[in-house]
Amino acid sequence: MTLSDQLGDMLIRIKNATLVKKAQTNTFCSQEKENVLKVLVKQGYIRNYQVKEIDGHKALLINLSTNKQDQPFLVKRVSKPGQRIYLKAKNIYPIKGGRGCLLISTSKGIMTGQEAKKQNLGGEVIAEIN
Fold first, then answer.
1. What is the pTM of this model?
2. How far apart, in Å, are the Cα atoms of 56 and each of 20, 27, 28, 52, 53?
3. What is the CATH number of the domain that holds 29?
């Protein structure tokens, strides 16, 4: 079975694992997924991740964390394969009054909405993290 939205699958796995308070989840490995995970680690939404080999395939083992109030964070996929959503730098909006995070794929890589706005970069909105 092939997935048409592998990045969306990873984000849903992370969301579901945090909702049931699991410590880890895994998914197949790709460069785009690793770039998103680097941003999530930098923002403190996940502890870390490792590239492992499971059954002869590269996989990402993701160690999850919760926020300071021990509440799971929620991930909402914005841009989907059937409908891509793009924003200009001036139209980037804050999530939950600045407490959340917007993941944007720009020409300089995947970054948060705040970083993209500071660098005056727009791009495809990947996900909202609350």
1. 0.89
2. 28, 14, 11, 10, 6
3. 3.30.1490.10
